[in-house]
TrEMBL record:
Domain spans labelled ABC transporter: 6-241
Keyword Zinc belongs to the record: no
Keyword vocabulary terms for this entry: ATP-binding, Nucleotide-binding, Transport
Originating organism: Promethearchaeum syntrophicum
Pfam families, sorted: ABC_tran
Matches recorded under PROSITE patterns: ABC_TRANSPORTER_1 (PS00211), ABC_TRANSPORTER_2 (PS50893)
UniProt KW Secreted keyword: no
Protein name: ABC transporter ATP-binding protein
InterPro entries recorded: AAA+_ATPase, ABC_transporter-like_ATP-bd, ABC_transporter-like_CS, ABC_transporter_ATP-bind, P-loop_NTPase
Entry GO MF terms: ATP binding; ATP hydrolysis activity
């Protein structure tokens, strides 16, 4: 289980004043959880993910992974076990899909055979084997995000925790829906633990085991929802829409 406790996170504004972004934000994430975080724009969601992924360590609080009592960052970040997928993931435009996935493996001195095996497995996982020689500009936005997921999984082969920052927000509704289904399949197959930021209530309801609703700045957890509807979820069902309505109530 992951125990995240951020007592405070501040930024200094250009006017040299303090901007207290997170205050007493606490939440736990269990193994194989799918936790979505929703909240008003600018409430600190990206900041939270950057802290979890180890890009920002300038905060007051503690991140723990139990039962191991070791340092969270030593266990996860330095071992490359946290996958981070930003809102707009940039692939290298001059490298084809296969080479984009392979890129992180090259840096890590992984043997050619192991690289081949990983690339095959991931291309199969997202159903993109036939596009392996395509350049990024030759595939759709949805496909690019799938490759982004592959890259995160390739670089972190033992990755258990994946944090995703509004990864589907630039996509049209139909592509988004089908990627949500793909993501659930990857989550199941790879036994991942996912922390997923979105501002889309439908998306959070479709995907998550749990949803955390954050307050405005300084952000803390306003409400936690457990969603017990079994997958695959029907977006038009009564129970689905009941949850959507409840979530919406907390956001306004
Ligand atoms: N690198 C930074 N330097 C200064 N302020 C920042 C920085 N990153 C984010 N902020 C501030 O932190 C707050 C939360 O930002 P962010 O985490 O991006 O929100 P969200 O992802 O929920 O929209 C905003 O007020 C933003 O201006
Ligand atoms: Mg953000």
């Amino acid at each position: 289980m992951f125990k995240f406790g951020i007592n405070s996170k501040k930024f200094i504004t250009p006017e040299k004043t303090e901007n207290l972004v997170l205050k007493n934000l606490e939440f736990n994430v269990t193994e194989n959880d799918f936790v979505s975080i929703i909240g008003p724009s600018g409430c600190g969601k990206t900041t939270i993910l950057r802290i979890l992924a180890g890009f920002d360590k300038d905060f007051d609080g503690s991140l723990e992974y139990s039962p191991k009592s070791d340092n969270y960052y030593e266990n996860f970040e330095s071992l490359g076990k946290i996958g981070y997928i930003p809102q707009e993931f940039s692939l290298f435009p001059w490298l084809n899909i296969e080479k984009n996935i392979r890129f992180g493996l090259n840096i890590k001195n992984i043997s050619k055979e192991d690289q081949d095996e990983t690339v095959e497995r991931l291309l199969d996982l997202v159903g993109m084997n036939e596009f392996r020689k395509y350049l990024p500009h030759e595939i759709s936005g949805g496909m690019k995000q799938k490759i982004a997921i592959c890259r995160a999984l390739a670089i972190n082969p033992t990755s258990k925790l994946i944090v995703m920052d509004e990864p589907f927000s630039a996509l049209d509704a139909q592509t988004r829906n089908s990627l949500q289904e793909d993501l659930l399949e990857i989550w199941r197959k790879q036994k991942l633990t996912i922390v997923f930021v979105t501002h889309n209530i439908d998306e959070a309801t479709f995907l998550s085991k749990r949803v955390l609703v954050l307050t405005k700045l300084p952000a803390k957890v306003l409400k936690e929802f457990n969603i017990e509807i079994p997958h695959p979820r029907d977006r038009t069902s009564l129970e689905f829409n009941k949850i959507r309505k409840d979530l919406l109530g907390y956001l306004n």
